[in-house]
Amino acid sequence: MRTQVAIIGAGPAGLLLGQLLHRHGIDNIIIEKHTPEHVLSRIRAGVIEQVAVDLIDEAGVGARMRRDGLVHHGTQFCVDGVRHRFDFRELTGKSVMVYGQTEITKDLMDGRAAAGLPTDYAAYDVALHNIFGAHPTVTYRGDGRSHQVECDFIAGCDGFHGVSRKSVPSGAIKTYERIYPFGWLGLLTDRPPVSDELIYVRHELGFALCSMRSPTRSRYYLQVSLADDINDWPDERFWDELRLRLDGKANADLVDGPALEKSIAPLRSFVAEPMRFGRLLLAGDAAHIVPPTGAKGLNLAASDVRYLSQALVERYKENSDIGLDHYSARALARVWKAERFSWWMTTLLHTFPDGQFEQKMQSAELDYLFKSRSAAAAFAENYVGLPF
Ligand code: FAD
Ligand code: DHB
Predict the structure, then answer these.
(1) 98: CA distance to ligand 2 center in Å?
(2) Model confidence over 316-355: pLDDT tens digits?
(3) Catalytic: 296?
(4) How buried is residue 344: exposed, middle or buried, by Cβ count under 10 Å (0-12/13-18/19+)?
(5) Closest to 158 measured CA to CA, from 346, 287, 246, 37
(6) Nearest bound ligand to CA 264?
């Protein structure tokens, strides 16, 4: 088979790129390791920046998000039992959308199917060839046969554990990494959220986050030890621990219920540089990971896709390579700012082992954040999403 762009991975990055390219008349195929059901079963991000909302609209799949998504004009911190609110509209004139990654993925999959675009799910042994030559190819197996796709460009949108980044010669890539000494235990339940805004909780027992997916479905997270196993956390223990970390009002308002999903995720900061290798272009988690505290992972995937789709449109419609030549530098400038913000917010709100000095720094920084309008505006500006 021959196409213009072969996209590896049907997560938000790959699906969004495929849709945007299609709308500009650029042929693409998506090759995905898992089944669509498996892709949709992964419960991940929930907060979408305005710029990512606009991009989903531009891809032509924003209608359900506009109807069912919850626009949030602020967020709250609860520090040692006391709440503080940041008003995004007053501080930045912007807001964010609460709408699950699973729903975005579903909308993109439905849009792709409606447009009749090719997607090969359950592909295995995916391999990239000749990325530095003029005619790269992708080979894989699926449906009991071998496949070969000839293309002009390969978009590596296959997440942190994907094959694309690993196909690059080790001397051509530099990586930066920080691993945090704790994980997040997430629980999804069909119960109304404890508050109509997200609550980020800093407590001596550890960080907690109260989030939501809809007026009837809530998502909670607890900072847990990396040594913990999901079987150590029956639902009752989760709710008991969450209550210990919340303030009195949240305790009174919390409605617990059985977990629809429960999982532990490690926290990591990671960046690979550059993001372009010949005709292979990395986007999203394939190139970088943020700890989830600032809700930036999905949003960064969308911003990479914005730069990359514009660069490919310039290549095909204007015969210009300028966008492709600048893709890596443009994307990384935004990536590093989101890395900084996610690292800062993680450091600010979690309990670190043996960190008495760090704890004092957290308290001083939080006090400054609550009392200084400039500090609050800097937080809000990053949270709602920096401009391109
Ligand atoms: P992915 O969503 O990882 O998609 C990559 C796709 O490529 C997958 O479908 C995968 O199956 C496929 N693939 C992998 N290998 C291959 C291969 N060899 N061949 C073909 N296909 C392949 N962000 C937040 O903002 N808030 C959160 O709460 C949050 N929670 C998270 C929890 C977990 C457990 C994880 C892993 C991430 C979380 N994130 C969160 C981050 C956010 O979900 C990601 O940043 C986002 O999914 C990135 O999208 P992506 O398309 O780049 O990668
Ligand atoms: C969610 C996850 C986050 O990391 C975050 O900062 C806000 C919300 C969520 O899954 O709802």
Answers:
(1) 9
(2) 999 999 999 999 999 999 999 999 999 999 999 999 987 7
(3) yes
(4) middle
(5) 287
(6) 1
